[in-house]
Amino acid sequence: MHVRRLSRAQKGAGLALAVTALLGTATVGPAQAAPQSPPEAPAPAADCSAAYRIEQKLDGGTTWRMCWRYDTLAGVVLDKVTYQPKGEPKPIRVLNSARLAQIHVPYDDGKTEYDDVTGTDFGYALQNLSAAECPGGTIKTVKVPQRGNVKGLCTTTRARGHAYRLANDSGTKVWQAQGKDLLVYSVNKASWYEYITEWRFASDGTITSNVGATGMLSPFDYDGGDSRGWPIGKNATAHAESHNHNVFWRLDTALDGNTKNKVEQFDSTVTAPTGGGSPTTKTKRTAVTKELGGDAKSMRWWRLVSTTGKNKDGHARSYEIVPGRTDKFPGRSYTKRDVYFTEYKKCEKYASHNAGCPSGTPNSVDKWVNGQALKNPVTWVNIGFHHIARDEDQEPMPVHWQGFSLSPRDVTAMNPLTPADLARRNGNVGPLP
Ligand SMILES: [Cu+2]
């Protein structure tokens, strides 16, 4: 038997009721009046009060700016995210809003299935962070309804190693740079598990989000047996039951401040040589003009393209979706696809168990894909992890990360970190200086 729900009850029977009562309204912070900007009215960069503003200058002169708020049914939500590399006169808007959209946790025996974002007290159980958990950073105070202030949001920077390296032909010169990321993270407890929701903003324009599962295995799920569990105690006394963590993110993009973004899918096909030649590869671009539930596969990717802004080379700015490793769980209609693009609707916030739309509206993202034209696409990313426990998972469990990146493609005319003496290289042949 599971006691994850009992554990929640121990924290106070009122919480479960509070979750229901506050559904869809439990937003705090400066954006309370308008939790999501309407698509046609992008707000300027970081126009929130100082307490809710995050601004960080990184190596190479790149500055990231955003606003944060807290939603007890999603955790930390980031709004109005802009990127301004050196040489750009103003911040470039990337995201209107980014948030977790569900963590679906089905156990392998089919007897238990959790929705850890909407179905537990995840949002209320925001964890206080000590200074040691936010090295070199600042811990922001989060007002959590019915709980009060929680020192719950860390913003800091972290080295990521080489941003680039290039040696000239004679080996007399090496251009190299060490990159840094802005990190924004919080920890929410969902009974036995603790989820670290981390956002990373790199000096080269990349955005990465990962959810890290840690805490402990449910000690009431040691009954998995041989086919659905893994022995974790002396000999075979306890078999921790296997389960999935299917994490969904909701991304409301607004490239160059405009939510009217185009979606494109790219597929490359390799042809093996028939004679003594070499393999050839062809890449095809498909405009995604209608809502789509997409399957990731080898040599396939998607991007969101600005309809407003171009870089200095005259190329449309875009961001590419780069999913991390995933165990796709085909057990529910909404977990069957790796990515969904749906037309923006304010009430569509959760990939499953969505509430707040007019009655009769389906409550999961797969059902919203119904042929509507994509003008203001919302991107849903689904990354799964089939967790087969191991002895090392006790105790505490080592953090297991799962997530994706948004990678800039033609946002700037060159690498935004290009050193000045290589700037003339853009599309030109000739020796390095
Ligand atoms: Cu797990």
UniProtKB/TrEMBL annotation:
Q: Would the keyword Oxidoreductase turn up in this protein's UniProt record? A: yes
| Protein name (Swiss-Prot/TrEMBL) | Amine oxidase
MF annotations from Gene Ontology: copper ion binding; primary methylamine oxidase activity; quinone binding
GO annotation, biological process: amine metabolic process
The UniProt entry, under InterPro entries, shows: Cu_amine_oxidase (IPR000269), Cu_amine_oxidase_C (IPR015798), Cu_amine_oxidase_C_sf (IPR036460)
- Entry's EC annotation: 1.4.3.-
Tell me yes or no: is Coiled coil among this UniProt entry's keywords. no
Catalytic residues per the record?
A: 116, 193
- Annotated keywords: Copper, Metal-binding, Oxidoreductase, Signal, TPQ
Top EC category: oxidoreductase
Domain of life, source organism = Bacteria
Q: Which Pfam families match?
A: Cu_amine_oxid
Question: For this protein, what post-translational modification is recorded in UniProt?
Answer: Topaquinone (TPQ) is generated by copper-dependent autoxidation of a specific tyrosyl residue.
So which cofactors does this thing need? Cu cation
The record's similarity note reads: Belongs to the copper/topaquinone oxidase family.
Question: Where would one find the signal peptide in this protein?
Answer: 1-33
Q: Which residue ranges does the record assign to the Copper amine oxidase catalytic domain?
A: 62-416
- Manner of cofactor binding, per the entry note: Contains 1 topaquinone per subunit.
Q: Which residues carry this modification: 2',4',5'-topaquinone?
A: 193
| SUPFAM superfamilies for this protein | Amine oxidase catalytic domain
